[in-house]
Amino acid sequence: MSFRKRNVVLSGTGPASGESSPRRPPGLLADNPPSPRPGAVPGRSPLPVRPAGRIGFPGAAQNVAAAPQRKAFRKPVRQPLMEGPVLTAEEEARLAPEKERLRAVMDKEALNVRRSLVAARTQTLGPGARPSALDGRPITSTGTQSVDQLLAGYGGLALGHSLLVEEQGTTDFASVMIRAYAAEGLVQGHHVHVLGVGPGWRTELPAIATASSSSKSRKAEEAANDKMKIAWRYEALAPRPTANTQRGPAQGTPGSPIATFCHSFDLTKRLLPADIKGTLNAFPLPNPLLPSPQPESEHSPLRKFLASVSASLESTPPSTVHRVILPSFLSPTLYAMDGWTFPFVLALIMGLRSLLREHNRRLTLMISLSTTLYERHNEYVRQLEDLCDNIMELVPLPPGPPSAVAKNAGPSSGSSTSSSSRDKSPADKMQGWCKVHKLQIYSEYGGAGGSTQGASLRENLCFSVSGSKGLVVEPYSLPPIEDDNSQEKKAPATTKDKKDGMEF
Asked: PANTHER family, per this entry (predicted)?
């Protein structure tokens, strides 16, 4: 409805003549009514129209006139600055040495502050740590060379970050990574803090692989690579160089020997005391069969463990690297669940995360968790994953029939059976799948889809465990298809076969 129609009062529905309309007070209509419009019905008064510029409610004019005027803004008056005392020439000459002394002290303090800032930026890294080739972040090895290559291209676990290893089923492949991580720390001279085990856990760590075993495995890999022929056109190409896990960039002076960044471990042997340079701080938990003391907030061993890690960080030099390990986290065989609640468990992880961010050049964390006991869609497990920087999941394969290579090999194959069993593809050697759900720094920045840093998030990875090389993660690939009739084609034809072939 238009503005004109809203303010029109029809005479047929209005009050009787001589009476004022209840909707419109008297005195608001124009003194001179407008002339009748052409075509209007005689005897009927024209429609009253409110003139423009008039207010349509009583007392509005008085209210407008009585509105208070806004006060003008008054600028604040600035007080004049106090002038210092005027010194004479004799007083200035007497205070000049004191001014020079104070200026020298201030310059020295500023120089010390600048030096401390530069030293904090270029802080020397301890043994077993080095700058990443990607962006210079300090990193350390997980003890498994293939896992180091999966962590967003940094070449290792970045200091101040954590790694969560999840595993399905009743197997214990995650313990291979946990023990290699602890053994690498002890060999490098780090402080290793383990929750839920005793001091005897040191005797379960794998030993450093000798040069003979590593050379044998390297020769076997080279022989396997030479025998793997995809197409004839690739035979002329040079073999792809393999990564050397026993050497790393120099961490000392040019004259010092090159330090080893990632060691190879032999699972069939145990770590010798002579190779241990670090300290193992074991923190055993109470017997899970006995009830835990109450109240939990005062007697929780998780709080004591967190306090011990914090005290160790404060009491050691700034260049010392610490490793925190939570093996088989929340397993009923290690953790007393009587009286424990998951909020206290999350409080432990949040406390460790705050220590990781505070000591971002000295501390790393690795956790292993069974997803069979605690599934990933659990609310608390999701919160635990949000607090971790790297997440890997191991999915072991169920026991099945033997490989097709050994199955197709007959008893008359002889030496071909042994050679085919030695040269196996990743599909034949795999013991399970490896899924990467989250990567350090890369996932925090959103993770660009086509970036090479997130290649491990998109690839199909499989893992295998061997006694000489430990756990190996590699891309999944099918073996090349071999022609079954190749032996028949290569066999020389006899005279009888030739004669039979000539007859039609």
From this structure: ELONGATOR COMPLEX PROTEIN 4, PAX6 NEIGHBOR PROTEIN PAXNEB
